[in-house]
Amino acid sequence: MHAKHDARKTTANGRATFLARFEAEVDPDGTLPPEERRRRAEHARSAYFTRLALAAVKARRQQRDGGVIALGGEDLQELVEKAAARRMTRGLTAEGGDGSAA
Questions:
Q1: For residue 55, with 0-12 CB atoms within 10 Å meaning exposed, 13-18 middle and 19 or more buried, which class applies?
Q2: Rounded Cα distance, 64 and 83, in Å
Q3: Cβ pair 37, 24 in contact under 8 A
Q4: Is 42 exposed, middle or buried (0-12, 13-18, 19+ CB in 10 A)?
Q5: What is the pTM of this model?
Q6: pLDDT in tens, 25-36
Q7: What is the pLDDT of residues 49-63, one digit of tens each?
Q8: Which among 3, 18, 69, 85 has the fewest CB atoms less than 10 Å away?
């Protein structure tokens, strides 16, 4: 299947549904302008993946060290801020996610 079909086309509906989840999360009443809703949804999506990455790191460390590792709110906030700074230095801002204007 993958050799015969474009992966972007076959996963388009799933990706749209996944992003819609974040749009509903940031604007449950649908009162925001579409651009602001999209911008906030992109940030919510980014935060989701940052939390996911943090959980993966914690799990790998715990498995490696055989102990329990817990990060408090300040540690999590610091990790999120560092990730945001890295995105900004790479040009991954709210414009289009890849530095291009949306």
A1: exposed
A2: 24
A3: no
A4: buried
A5: 0.56
A6: 999 999 999 999
A7: 999 999 999 889 888
A8: 3
Structural domain boundaries of the chain? 7-89
- Cβ count near 22 (within 10 Å): 20
- Confirm if 25 and 44 have CB atoms less than 8 A apart: yes
The angle at the Cα of 90, spanning 92 to 46, to the nearest 5 degrees, equals: 40
What angle, rounded to 10 degrees, do the helices at 34-65 and 73-89 form?
120
Residue position matching structure tokens 């939390």: 51
Token look-up 């996610």 returns 97
